[in-house]
Write a structure and sequence with these properties.
367 residues; alpha+beta; FAD/NAD(P)-binding domain; D-Amino Acid Oxidase, Chain A, domain 2; 2 domains; 9 helices; 27% strand
């Protein structure tokens, strides 16, 4: 038995690791290397109470495997707000399971906060950095040990049913398998269209980041993730500096995303309102596409024979990766999942049956 996995991000590589336990797996990636797009541009955080109830269930199920893999390290998260934002602050900090702090207590954790602006603060300790490179490498290593084959620089130009299976071709190569896994991220609907499968209606959204120097020469190593309300901005220590994101969510067609200078400037203004040191220079900026299904839960499973989805990770791909891959493996093998039945149902592509007759623009599948 064999499987073709399309996509070399966290979804595809984790799927290859899981399926290669009892199948011959060929993973196909269009770019020169794995994790070129969204998976290589992650904020690299694990926040268990992030996303809707279905996402949170997947994150909880992934906590143990992530701990066992040694990819989590303590970071903490600090929410900051103005006095006139008290009603929204109360709702949001409770939703994220945070504990109220005084401004003095918050300043110990985040010394650059602006006391003239910040009057409300809340904190949660069990928020973690997630070593995305180590996790991805671990899945890749497991897949290779099981005999999986990884093919990069392979831009697919044709997908056809081949008897009871599939034939996938690209310039200079082809692969055949009885099972096709669509883990193509922002390009997943394009892959489905090429295979003659009804699309889900996945929508990529851009999110930008900027790296700035450590403010006023502070050692930021132990600072928490700091964030505003409504995901208006966040700042996170990274390699002795800070990465600041405007947390924008702008719909985009699938492409190799890049940051927008105006969007970054607006986000940095929201950040600067809450801190004292000015931002005088951006050292580096980038963007990634976070791709969501219409209901903002992942799409895992099959509604067409031999064609499985592992898509719609949004901003949760790494923190849900182990449980999502395990569920895919269970569904392929016909095993009962350890996840609650209602969670499995909320992830299956069959929930979009009413979209079968809708027409979506066909996204290109090249990067």
């Amino acid at each position: 038995m064999s499987a073709i996995v399309i996509g070399g991000g966290i979804a595809g590589v984790s799927a290859a690791a899981e399926l290669s336990r009892d199948r011959h797996v060929t993973l196909i990636e269009a770019e020169d290397h794995l994790a070129h797009h969204a998976s290589g541009r992650s904020a690299a955080m694990f926040i268990e109470d992030y996303g809707n109830a279905t996402i949170r269930a997947l994150s909880r199920a992934s906590t143990g495997p992530l701990q066992d893999a040694g990819v989590l390290s303590p970071r903490g998260a600090l929410m900051l707000a103005r006095a006139d934002q008290s009603e929204i602050f109360d709702t949001e900090h409770r939703s994220f399971g945070m504990t109220r702090l005084s401004v003095d207590e918050a300043a110990v954790l985040f010394p650059i906060l602006n006391r003239d602006t910040v009057t409300l603060a809340a904190y949660r300790a069990d928020v973690f950095d997630l070593d995305t490179d180590l996790l991805l490498h671990g899945f890749r290593k497991r897949a290779l040990a099981n005999g999986a084959k990884f093919v990069t620089r392979a831009r697919i130009d044709k997908i056809v049913r081949d008897g009871d299976g599939w034939q996938v071709t690209w310039p200079g190569g082809e692969a055949r398998a009885d099972l096709l896994v669509n883990a193509a991220g922002a390009w997943a609907d394009g892959v489905a269209a090429m295979a003659g499968i009804a699309q889900i209606g996945l929508q990529p959204f851009r999110r930008s980041m900027a790296r700035i120097a450590a403010p006023d020469g502070h050692d930021v190593t132990r600072w928490p993730l700091a964030e505003g309300l409504g995901e208006g901005w966040y700042a996170k220590p990274d390699a002795g500096k800070l990465i600041v994101s405007p947390s924008e969510e702008h719909p985009m067609d699938p492409h190799d995303a890049f940051s927008d200078d105006m969007v970054l400037a607006e986000g940095l203004d929201r950040y600067q309102e809450m801190v004292t040191p000015p931002v005088t220079r951006i050292e580096h900026s980038w963007a990634g596409l976070r791709t969501f299904a219409p209901d903002r839960a992942l799409v895992i499973g099959s509604r067409d024979p031999g064609f499985f989805w592992l898509a719609g990770q949004g901003g949760y791909g790494f923190q849900t990766g182990p449980a999502a891959a395990r569920l895919l493996g269970d569904l392929v093998a016909g095993r009962q999942s350890e996840l609650p039945p209602e969670v499995v149902s909320a992830l299956l592509p069959a929930r979009f049956e009413n979209l079968q007759n809708r027409t979506f623009p066909t996204p290109p599948i090249s990067g």
